[in-house]
Amino acid sequence: MWLLGLSWALSMLVTTVGSGPAVPPQGRASIFADLSAAELAAVRSFLLSRPELGLSPSHGGPLAKNSLFLVELLPPKKRLALRYLDQGGPRPQRQARAVVFFGGQAEPNVTEFAVGPLPRPSWYRPLSFKGGRSVPFTARPMTMREYEELHRVLAAAMAPLNRLLRDATGFWYHNGSCQHPRAGEGDGLGQRCLTFSDVAPRGLASGERRSWLILQRFVEGFFLHPVGLEVLVDHRDPDPRRWGVRQLWYNGRYFSSPQQLAESYERGTLEVARLPLPPSRQLFSSYEPRGRFTTGTPTKVHGARVCEPQGRRYRLRGNLLEYGGWSLAFRLRSSAGLQLFDLRFNGERVAYEVSVQEAVAFYGGHSPAAMQTKYMDAGWGMGSVTYELAPGIDCPSTATFVDAHHLYDADGPVRFARAVCIFELPTGVPLRRHFDSDFQGGFNFYAGLEGQALVLRTTSTVYNYDYIWDFLLYPNGVAEAKVHATGFIHATFYMPQSQRYGSRVHSHLLGNLHTHLVHYKVDLDVAGTGNSFETMDIRFENISNPWSPGARVVQPWLHWQPRRSKTGSWVPTQHPHVGFCPMPPDRYHLAVTRHHENEHSSSSIYAQNEPWEPLVHFESFLRDNETIEDQDLVAWVTVGFLHVPHAEDIPNTATPGNAVGFFLRPFNFFDEDPSVASRGPVIVRPLDPPAFTRLQIQRWTPASPGPCSAPAPFTYNGTY
């Protein structure tokens, strides 16, 4: 069996049958490979050539038009994939998923299509959601074209407030483009522009599209520079000429229009929040070094680095990754990020799929934007914002970097260089070790195996936050999924009344408290698809001591509980359910369901703007109360943490202490630790105890890995 390791429960899937490979590994992996740039372009060209769709380019033109928003791989159905992988069946046809915004018709909507066969598509057909529901137009993700119209509406609305904004902040909202200021150029403040960040959900009920915008000074790290003004814009209508500002909040007061706010300022009845101009250098929101460490240890030199003294110990062929006993196929979905398929150890399938599903952040605050913020990042193109990884910082310089191509709100494939990296990581702690003391100042033997793991990594920069997504493979058959949160905190204007919702992290800045929750899909197929689910809990007993009459023994024992139906197949989280915003996947630390093709994901790109009646309602996965004994099972895992921002989150949230994840661990699946196959251990035995002048050192790799790691051969002296 394979253990799903979480800090709060021990949950395991019991296996019944075996499986074996039927096609070469690279052939297995390629059916899950992301669409190439040529395939993305072919799908776009084919759909634009269909006159009945009436598609226009995404950029430019009116908002009320038919346009192609997203193209990505449509993975094969599991039964077809397994027939090909395990039984020598036909190779599944390669298809694409295409999302089209039909805004140029009387009843606007969003429709998804399957397009195939690739690489030369010749047909398309609509895809449906569970229950046959259609996607309302107001549920669509934001586009650059819509942001352009929001900017235009906001610029016009801010014209009456230019005097207030200039006097209070030294900045104002320009009716044109602004160049991002660069530190060290001029006064470092550029054209003194204001910009905005928008929050979501966009309204309070289904069908609305009203967004609160936070105005900020457009300097480096503008997320940390709100000016105390928030604006509610109604942009539901497909015609932007019907959009308008419906409400404003300034320094704790609400106003019905920009004119009302401007009049209050002119009459002198407005309490103005006057902000000093930010400095041109060493801005608190920048990465420029400032301050000093007190010890005097070197800081102007490079720190420790990862090296590969004898070359790489992993192999990458297309999207097939192999390392030690591990093999897997991976892809980077534009919609939601990393997705692993056909995860195997020593040829035995462990999981059919392990993938990121959703990342949410629920905020609290005093201002309207803060109290409205409930981010669901799949709705912001979480998998498409995979910007370039920096060698030596984001990944070791020795890493293998892989480009990605996305067609997301674009008029063709866009190449994202170095979007994924792969590297072997010294963990800094042995995988296992033992010092066998003779209790007389010497030892009988020492043995240890250095700790290493293979890391598959990408990042998502979703507006202010940066998520670092890792999958780690260890040589003892353990796999780990982990996410680090970093980047800029989501912050609002500080007021004394807002202190209960976070921390004052700078003079006019509140770091708003929030909860991060991340949802994963883990389709475990341990030695086959016939799995069962049971939990193992620790209980205690108080019994009579059998060898000492009258004494008692308190000791732990294992309580195994089979979970035979969905009714008992979940473990609730300790986070209160957010009733205004139903995101059921985040109610549960763990939920187990049967595999169904129409339950392939727990969320969707539409959940952010339609959380009240979500197109994918995870609760429905659990309602039918199917049996889950000896079935094809899927585990849905939620991990998360509470973040109360503090001054040390300036300029950015640091990764230590802000990471969560889970492990997949074998549990009596192997006869012994499978890392015994590694040739990396070192065994030291004394040849002449108690003198300990001669030692036998056994190792199965070269005595010295090379000068980049250790300038001299390995030595050891175990006396004390």
Automatic annotation (TrEMBL):
| Family, per entry | Belongs to the copper/topaquinone oxidase family.
Question: What keywords does the record list, in alphabetical order?
Answer: Copper, Metal-binding, Oxidoreductase, Signal, TPQ
For this chain, the Swiss-Prot or TrEMBL PTM comment says: Topaquinone (TPQ) is generated by copper-dependent autoxidation of a specific tyrosyl residue.
PROSITE patterns according to UniProt: COPPER_AMINE_OXID_1, COPPER_AMINE_OXID_2
Name the InterPro entries for this protein.
Cu_Am_Ox_Cu-bd, Cu_Am_ox_TPQ-bd, Cu_amine_oxidase, Cu_amine_oxidase_C, Cu_amine_oxidase_C_sf, Cu_amine_oxidase_N-reg, Cu_amine_oxidase_N2, Cu_amine_oxidase_N3
Cellular component GO terms held in the UniProt record: plasma membrane
Q: Which GO terms describe its biological process?
A: amine metabolic process; response to antibiotic
User: Does the keyword RNA-binding belong to this entry?
Assistant: no
**Co-factor: note:** Contains 1 topaquinone per subunit.
Q: Which cofactor does it need?
A: Cu cation
Which Enzyme Commission numbers does its entry carry? 1.4.3.-
Q: Where is the Copper amine oxidase N3-terminal domain?
A: 187-253
Q: What is this protein called?
A: Amine oxidase
Instruction: Give the modified residues of type 2',4',5'-topaquinone.
Output: Y465
| Top EC class of this enzyme | oxidoreductase
Copper amine oxidase N2-terminal domain boundaries: 39-122
UniProt-annotated catalytic positions: D377 (proton acceptor), Y465 (schiff-base intermediate with substrate)
One Pfam family hit: Cu_amine_oxidN3
The GO terms this record gives for MF are:
copper ion binding; diamine oxidase activity; primary methylamine oxidase activity; quinone binding
Where does the signal peptide begin and end?
1-18
| Residues annotated as domain Copper amine oxidase catalytic | 305-542, 587-675
Q: Which domain of life is it from?
A: Eukaryota
